[in-house]
Amino acid sequence: MTPAARPKTIQIFLPLGDPRGEYTAEGFVVLKGSKGRAQIAKAFEHHSFAKRRNELIEQGRIVVEGDVTVFTEDVLFASPSGASAVVCAAASNGWLDWKTARGETLSEVKRGG
Q1: 3-state SS assignment for residue 82
Q2: Dihedrals φ, ψ of 95, to 5°?
Q3: pLDDT digits 0-9 by tens, 38-47
Q4: Which of 50, 70, 78, 111 has the maximal Cβ count within 10 Å?
Q5: In angstroms, what CA-CA distances link 98 with 2, 42, 55, 69?
């Protein structure tokens, strides 16, 4: 993939980690080495994205290391919100929570607002 064609890497700024991802034609990819929250929000425990998170942990694609989770490989999600919910261990709007280093939201970058 040429540099011009490569998706823009964006991230969610969390106190415990620095998850990074890319929006692609296939969906949203959380990149290997990204870190997220280990402790799941109480209201999130029965959410469908919590189930996906647990499956990824069981598969070893995400590992828990103390207060954080670490992605052991790139993981594709169908939506930016699914990706951010798994990373944040809470309900999340990925279009607003994923941001570039300049602070632009994914919505601003991909939807123009």
Answers
A1: helix
A2: -65, -25
A3: 999 898 989 9
A4: 50
A5: 23, 22, 23, 17
